[in-house]
């Protein structure tokens, strides 16, 4: 079943969290000269036109990149991400939004390799076209990679990941971002990562996931914590309290296995700002937790991560106030919202990295052609409706929230 189209959701709050973190992971990988392989198991179309039929249908970008577009004093770690989005919109009008392959293309170096998987026949075609244009544009500028820098495969990313590991240079950044249309996706992510870690334990693996009421979603981070990676980091962004109907995506997370040691500080500097700008009500908040392989969450304390943060709500406190935190029940180590008064324009923890180098001339997702919305009963439990239509899917008995 392939009803999901990311074009309906491009640029929403979940994309902002995912792509901001992705940019940070590339920046970290770029610090070493040795090239790396970027593997995108679920690539989507690569570039999205925010004025397309799909994107404007529910205008989800209004929950994400929209409010950030005119922000001026942003935390330093957010800047490379925003610069990247702006660089593809040179007119200053917010028209295009990058998908993860575009982010990777811009952030990775000429010697790095991109391996992109996409199952949807229409999206893989658009992805091919976007990459072709990008390469033509780079060639015009005299930039040529040795060998094939970007390879796109019309195939199953869960299945394919293992065949690329370990990568030739023994360095890899892997993004796993399925639609979670079906609850099987949670298990497939976990299983694929377990196998990947078995083949290549030192890879950096980033997983996006929806934070929903359904059991698979609630248990998901704990399952990832038990994977045999040396370390993990889990960050979530919630923009509002779910309504009683449980419809809509209010919260999502990025779970990183073998994260950069610098990432937590970047997140602590940036997440309060995202909560402040994207938050819609008092339910808006972020969480950051990290731990080691030993015992999942509990290991964080064993590893001497320090005391727990006070319980509270990051939304209520401005990033400038230095207050705000949250501890979720059952999480032994959660140091969320402990900002030390850092806010917009505050001094970065480390120097900001240069903005992306190249620019695609993107087609957007639709190439001007509205596509008939798909619909699927499974969407009722999905984090991301394939049709982008009104969020009217009825709740399943026993699971009344998080549906869209
Ligand atoms: C959330 S979107 C990806 C968005 C993209 N990572 C980004 O950030 O721009 C998920 C994509 O996975 C595709 N997909 C679904 N199942 C897949 C599978 N088993 N293997 C590869 N792609 C799949 C869908 O067609 C969809 O385009």
Average of per-residue pLDDT values: 78
Helical segment count: 11
What is the CATH domain class? Alpha Beta
Radius of gyration: 20 Å
Shape: globular
Return the structural class.
alpha/beta
Let me know the CATH homologous superfamily: Vaccinia Virus protein VP39
How far apart, in Å, are the first and last alpha carbons? 17 Å
How many individual domains? 1
- The SSE string, one letter per element, is HEEHHHEHEHEHEHEHEEHEH
Major β-sheet strand ordering: 5-4-1-6-7-9-8-10
Helix content: 25-40%
Bound molecules: S-adenosylmethionine
Q: How would you characterize the overall build of this protein?
A:
The chain has 404 residues and is of the alpha/beta class. The C terminus is likely disordered. Helix 8 links the parallel strand 6 and strand 7. The radius of gyration is 20 Å and the shape is globular. The chain has 11 helices and 10 strands. It has a single domain, classed as 3-Layer(aba) Sandwich (Rossmann fold), CATH 3.40.50.150. Helix 1 runs parallel beside helix 5 and helix 1 packs antiparallel against helix 10. The chain binds S-adenosylmethionine. It catalyses: adenosine(2030) in 23S rRNA + S-adenosyl-L-methionine = N(6)-methyladenosine(2030) in 23S rRNA + S-adenosyl-L-homocysteine + H(+). Specifically methylates the adenine in position 2030 of 23S rRNA.
